[in-house]
Amino acid sequence: MSAEYSSPLPGGHDSVATLPRHVAIIMDGNGRWATRRRSPRFAGHRAGVNAVREVVQVCVEKRIEVLTLFAFSSENWRRPAEEVGLLMNLFMSALQSEMRKLHENDIRLRVIGERSAFSAELQTRIEQAERLMAANSGLNLFIAANYGGRWDITRAARTLAKKAVLGELAADDIDEHALAQEIALDAMPEPDLFIRTGGEKRISNFLLWQLAYTELFFTDALWPDFDRQAFEGALTSYATRQRRYGRTGEQVATAER
Ligand code: IPE
Ligand code: IPE
Ligand code: MG
């Protein structure tokens, strides 16, 4: 076997999947959860906050490094104004009520997405929470709010273009590495495990660039029902996957020995 193949795999960790370093979740199915109970959709969003708490708790216990949660997509503005308004209020109140506990657990919360569309009040609340937890070194918790994968890539491209115009960067130096440095979550390991609840099998404009080699896990469980046991089921599924990054299974098995 040539030395070329005995080098560590991209991502800097073993191809034998054990625990993911970074889990990214599309929390879907709140509305259907509520409708099945003959409740207004908003009741599902509210119940979803409990599932967030539980998943965060499991991540802290297992010392997972990064958790990225899709809370509101750039396309979710298309929903009825009333639902959007209630979601914004829920985001505000959840930030307010959870901030202290997150901080006590050494969690570092950050929000990714275009936040200028939020009310001044919500933007301030987000900044306060981020500032409070900025020096924490436990779980990196990212909330994707008014986030879109295409927005993210476009914004990174625009930043690089501006640098090129200013002469700080040659156009030929724009490579994958340069773009990856401008994109959301740039300093984090790429997501190892993607989970989507709610039964749909699509990415819905979540982390398009960052998910290139992520293991995908889809479950019919609706987000408010996604508890510790369900999350552990996803982690177990992940642990059985062989991550090949373009190589053959045999190459990977040999490199692991
Ligand atoms: C996900 O649940 C939460 C958000 C998109 C904000 P949904 O509200 O999409 O729930 P379903 O898909 O309608 O059941
Ligand atoms: C994706 O869910 C966005 C979030 C969970 C925040 P959606 O319910 O908006 O996705 P689509 O519309 O079914 O693709
Ligand atoms: Mg949905």
State Rg.
19 Å
> Helical percent range?
40-55%
- Distance from N terminus to C terminus (CA atoms, Å) equals 12 Å
| Strand arrangement, major sheet | 3-4-2-1-5-6
Contiguous uncertain segments of 5+ residues? 1-17
Q: What percentage of the residues does DSSP assign to strands (E)?
A: 5-15%
Number of helices: 9
Q: What oligomerization state is this entry in?
A: single chain
CATH homologous superfamily of the domain at 22-148 and 189-240 - what is it? Decaprenyl diphosphate synthase-like
Number of strands: 6
Per CATH, the architecture of the domain at 22-148 and 189-240 is 3-Layer(aba) Sandwich
Broad shape: globular
Structural category: alpha/beta
Classified by CATH, the class of the domain at 22-148 and 189-240 is: Alpha Beta
Q: Write down the overall mean pLDDT.
A: 94
Q: Can you walk through the features of this model?
A:
Strand 3, helix 5 and strand 4 form a beta-alpha-beta unit. The chain is built from nine helices and six strands, in the order H-E-H-H-E-H-E-H-E-H-H-E-E-H-H. It has a domain of 179 residues: Undecaprenyl pyrophosphate synthetase, CATH 3.40.1180.10. It starts with a helix and ends with a helix. It has a six-stranded parallel sheet with strand order 3-4-2-1-5-6, with helices on both faces. The longest helix has 24 residues. The chain has 257 residues and is of the alpha/beta class. The N terminus is likely disordered. Helix content is 45%, strand content 13%. Helix 4 runs parallel beside helix 5. Bound molecules: 3-methylbut-3-enyl trihydrogen diphosphate (2 copies) and magnesium ion (MG). One 3-methylbut-3-enyl trihydrogen diphosphate (IPE) binds next to strand 2. The site of one 3-methylbut-3-enyl trihydrogen diphosphate (IPE) has 11 residues, from strand 2.
